[in-house]
Amino acid sequence: MGMNTDTEKQSKLSHLPSDSGHYGDFGGIFVPETLHVALKQLTEAYQTAMNDPEFKNEFQRHLSEYVGRPTSLYYAERLTKHVGGARIFMKREDLSHTGAHKINNSIGQAMLTVRMNKKRIIAETGAGQHGVATATAAAKFGLNCDVFMGTEDMRRQQPNVKRMQLLGANVVPVESGSCTLKDATNAAMRDWMGSSDSTHYIIGSVVGPHPFPQMVRDFQAVIGIECRAQCLDQIGRLPDIIIACVGGGSNAAGIFFPFIDDHDVKLLGVEAGGRSDQLGDHAAPLSFGGPGVLHGSRSYVLQNKDGQTSPVHSISAGLDYPGVGPEHAHWHKSGRASYTSCSDKDALEAFTMMCKIEGIIPALESSHAIAQGIKTARSMKPDQVVVINLSGRGDKDLEEALRLLDDMT
Ligand SMILES: *Cc1c(COP(=O)(O)O)cnc(C)c1O
Predict the structure, then answer these.
(1) Is the CB of 251 under 6 A from ligand 1?
(2) Which of 97, 103, 378, 399 is buried deepest, with most CB atoms within 10 A?
(3) Whether 209 contacts 39, CB under 8 Å
(4) For the chain, what is the mean pLDDT?
(5) What is the position in ligand 1's atom list of the atom closest to the CA of 216?
(6) In which band, very low, low, confident or very high, does the pLDDT at 127 lie, cut at 50, 70 and 90?
(7) pLDDT tens across 68-86, in order?
(8) What percent of the chain stands above pLDDT 90?
(9) Which domains does the chain have, with CATH numbers?
(10) Ligand 1 atom at minimal distance to the Cα of residue 129
(11) pLDDT tens digit string along 142-200?
(12) Ligand 1 pocket residue status of 366, Cβ below 6 Å
């Protein structure tokens, strides 16, 4: 697996949340009483599994044989020349089975479900990417699977609805609120309150009550562990900066975490800047929001003056979420990582450039990181190194991207 043992040791030892799941002022467990038992059971099962070499070996085996890991670290030579600045490398999560990083987490949590003797998994999905990854893991491990999805998202993401059904999952339409991801998450939480004896809820990002943010980060940390070893091997040193898009924050946490103690490596998260800085026009809680509680933990959220969760907008459905993982809130506040936002328009421009110059169709989510990566690299010297996390491929976005590009011309 090309793992660097130092990195592995480091990622195990440092920056664990407190016993109550707090990262500084953020995180914790804000759920109804009925869920505390399930969360406690999950925490125990997870901790036992992570200390069990057999579990870790089996996880690694599935990642290599089924997901296709390690994904490559790719030198984007033509883009580098075109931009004229630092050398640009890309961590190619788009090459993973199902086309994005989400499968790492779904496989890990499906394995835990089997260990806990549960037969059913549920998940929430917005764009459908986490739903597809979870339906895939359910098929592989022989588990029943219900995926909650807002009816508005079902309409926008028909191909992924079909994909999940083909994989044997049941897609449950959610018709409340804005009929999108936030409402699907509420519905999944409600189901779990009545079903946790037999059901595990696979949350798709580093959000939700403890232990989810830590667990999802740890399953996604394979991205950063590989990337760190690949940088040392291929470039002979660590990068100057790592850039990743941030929805809930799982691909960013996954690539950032193994570099947390490498203080010379800057970490930059890119939120969805949408149409404008006005509330409702973007999905950038760290850039424009404030502290609050959403979906079981305390973090940065976008809310109106009455404390109601605000509507969000982004061209990329995977970034269209009013909250963000609590560990990102902590890194933001402590200054270990920085966060910025990228507009719909800039992301779309980076999407097009990436297709034409590198022959890679990136996800619209990842295009936010690419847009920022181009901007950052341009301001740096040729002997410096930028790593962009290419979180997923853009096949799912073709229709939407072509429609948007049409509108612009
Ligand atoms: C879901 C998704 C994201 C956003 O989720 P994070 O938890 O922030 O990583 C980013 N990129 C792709 C390709 C996705 O599918």
Answers:
(1) yes
(2) 103
(3) yes
(4) 94
(5) 7
(6) confident
(7) 999 999 999 999 999 999 9
(8) 87
(9) 24-65+102-216 (3.40.50.1100), 68-99+220-408 (3.40.50.1100)
(10) 15
(11) 999 999 999 988 988 889 999 999 999 999 999 998 888 989 999 999 999 999 999 99
(12) yes
Q: Where are the beta strands (DSSP E) in 179-336?
A: 199-201, 241-245, 266-274, 290-294, 297-301
For atom 10 of ligand 1, the residue with the nearest CA is: 365
Average pLDDT over residues 43-62: 97
Question: Which protein residue's CA is at the shortest distance from atom 1 of ligand 1?
Answer: 318
CB-CB contact of 211 with 42 (8 Å): yes
Atom of ligand 1 nearest to the CA of 100: 13
Rounded Cα–Cα distance for residues 136 and 95 (Å): 16
Residue 21 Cβ contacting ligand 1 at under 6 Å? no
Residue 105 beta carbon below 6 angstroms from any ligand 1 atom? no
φ/ψ (deg, to 5) at 309: -60, 130
The percentage of residues in the chain with a pLDDT greater than 70, rounded to a whole number, is: 96
Q: What is the number of other CB atoms lying within 10 angstroms of the CB of residue 383?
A: 8
Distance CA 191, CA 73 (A): 40
**Which of the residues are catalytic?**
102, 124, 391
Query: Of ligand 1's atoms, which has the minimum distance to the CA of residue 253?
Result: 9
Which of the listed residues 71, 102, 321, 396 should we mutate to test ligand 1's pocket, taking the one with most ligand atoms within 8 A of CB? 102
Q: Look up residue 331 and give its amino acid.
A: W
pLDDT of residue 235 exceeding 90, the answer is yes
The protein residue whose alpha carbon is closest to atom 2 in ligand 1 is: 318
- pLDDT score for 15: 63
* Alpha carbon distance 288, 271 (integer Å): 10
pLDDT in tens, 285-327: 999 999 999 999 999 999 998 889 999 999 998 899 999 999 9
Q: Quick one: 22 exposed, middle or buried, by C-beta within 10 A (0-12, 13-18, 19+)?
A: middle
